[in-house]
């Protein structure tokens, strides 16, 4: 079952190939004495104040929502986060990590139909099959902890109940009330590993994962809604709407994690909100926060980023 929140039509995104870096031309020249090293300034935005501004504004946009948010500037690995170590319900965020784990063990051709369903439609049965292809929950947890260096306290799956039958394991880090969880720091580490393309997520595997993650469900919220349409975004959203799953209305969760290839450079973004009085406001606040971070990166005014109800 695919859970949808605010049913607004989101733009469908056809994945575009990520062009490989062109090799430098080979030329011959007479030997020269080595030149003195030249310091090259690397652009790096200061996003700490931006996250603080978002956190201060959230109570006015989505009353009663709590917030975890973080950004990594990928060219330098500089990271900013607020409540970055707080466990958050994983839901469909896990499909990003499970696709990576499946790619590490199986041929791309076997992973592709499941990954396409997981990203384009957030298909839960496809998510379960990705777990199986990745070796099961024990192997998934080992992959994230050992291969991607994400601590078990920052990402772990004890059970997944989205398929026809549940997958469970005792080899996990447990958080009360959550079958699976992530933290903002854990999500940012995942996204950094994917962007860096370290083995086994290198070469064509990295290329395909970045292409699949440009897909998104046709309805519901999206972190790319208020970003320029020509900006590549590789992302996965997750939501448990108010009133779902036999829970009280205040038990609701909204999350997005992704890599944005801005004109100034790529950055990883992770946000999770929960317990909103108005679930629609909460999803639209996620979209607003993504816009504010993007405008800060490209050094443009964020006052026109649409908030809830705009």
Structural write-up:
It is a single chain. The chain is an alpha+beta fold and 310 residues long. It has one domain (48-297): Beta-lactamase, CATH 3.40.710. The chain has eight helices and ten strands. The strands form three sheets. It has a five-stranded antiparallel β-sheet, sandwiched between helices. Strands 3-7-4 form a three-stranded antiparallel β-sheet. Strands 5-6 form a two-stranded antiparallel ribbon. Helix 3 (108-121) packs antiparallel against helix 4 (124-133). The chain is globular and about 45 Å long. Mean pLDDT is 89; it is low at 1-13 and 19-36.
Helix share of residues?
A: 25-40%
CATH superfamily membership, which one?
DD-peptidase/beta-lactamase superfamily
The CATH topology annotation reads as: Beta-lactamase
The end-to-end distance, rounded to whole angstroms, is: 30 Å
Q: If classified by CATH, what would the architecture be?
A: 3-Layer(aba) Sandwich
What is the global morphology?
globular
Overall mean pLDDT score? 89
For the record, the count of structural domains works out to: 1
Sequence of secondary-structure elements:
HEEEHHHHEEEEHHEEEH
> How large is the radius of gyration?
20 Å
Q: Can you identify the CATH class?
A: Alpha Beta
- Please report the total strand number as a whole number: 10
Widest sheet: strand order?
Answer: 2-1-10-9-8
Work out the helix count. 8
Question: In terms of structural class, how would the helical and strand content be classed?
Answer: alpha+beta
Low-confidence stretches: 1-13, 19-36
Largest sheet: 5 strands, antiparallel
Q: Roughly what fraction of the amino acids lie in strands?
A: 15-25%
